[in-house]
Here is the input.
Amino acid sequence: MKPSEIVAGLDRQVVGQDDAKRILAVAVYAHWRKAEMAAADGLDMLKSNVLLIGPTGSGKTLLCETLARVLAVPFVTADATSLAQSEFVNDELDAVLQRLIDRAGGDPAAAGRGIVFIDEVDKLKAISGQARAAAGEHVQHALLKIMEGATVRLKGGATLDTAQILFICGGAFVGLESILAETQAFGFIAANADDDQKVLDRLNARVKPTDLFRFGLIPEFAGRLPIVARLDQLTRDQLVRIMIEPGNALYRQYRALLANEGVELVIEPAVFGQIADLALEYKVGARSLRGIFEEMLTPVLYAVPDRQDLTKVTLRSLFEPAVFG
Ligand SMILES: Nc1ncnc2c1ncn2[C@@H]1O[C@H](COP(=O)(O)OP(=O)(O)OP(=O)(O)O)[C@@H](O)[C@H]1O
Ligand SMILES: [Mg+2]
Here is the structure.
């Protein structure tokens, strides 16, 4: 698969985030080509692991889940928070690698060229003097070992060399902005808010391992994530598109649900804008859309089964009752 084909596949589910999509697609493509070349002529090539950073509800997890579906290479995901809560981190990591082998049809060699996505790595940050943070650091060390390449003997009996496995890590990294501003912002004078945003964008684009270190990741771990892809805060427009466009968009889902009862659901464009405005206020990205949507439709979903004569339900405003017809 070429990078453009990977991006096209991602575009079907994930709205916006074009930069992150491209960076991810190129990383995966390059990884796959390197693995192919290594298999052909035995050259060991360095992989470049990827770090996805972006605000909550902006599509990090969705992006990786979609990538897994789009790609033809073995792919597993793991959650750093649950790794940190486990008493036996290495056992948990073994299980992750075992799943990778399963995805590769039981072939450790194929699994050795697969991709592992580790979500919520920002939760592994060290806060001095906290027990939970110590666990996080412990997980970072455990991850480090498999990220830089180790031969792991799994409980199932298989042996897996992790040197060529691509690792993609994701996290919201709340507080990183201010670290970036501190370490890079001197010398800029912003004339207006628009300039401010531009300066911020430029800074955001360059996250260095030292910034991640200051955030609380151990230097060796941060250093093994040379490629950083940023996801942006979703705009009002993008929130509207998320409700309408993707294959499993909320609007499609509820239209299908009501069509199944013989009723056509029509939501007028203004309503999507109102929902997006509320979602922006909640500040959890696209995550709040579903809740608002369901609340809005509850009266409709309640009434429809009792009304055999209904053929159409129209919503004109989030703040007015639905029109039954
Ligand atoms: N760019 C997007 N395109 C389409 N849907 C999106 C997008 N971003 C978020 N969503 C929707 O919001 C939900 C939450 O997104 P996701 O889990 O990817 O957020 P996240 O960035 O991983 O946040 P967190 O940092 O809290 O884990 C998704 O299930 C999806 O329905
Ligand atoms: Mg997530």
The mean pLDDT is 88. Strands lie at 50-53, 75-79, 115-119, 151-153, 159-161, 166-171, 227-230, 264-267, 312-315, 323-324.
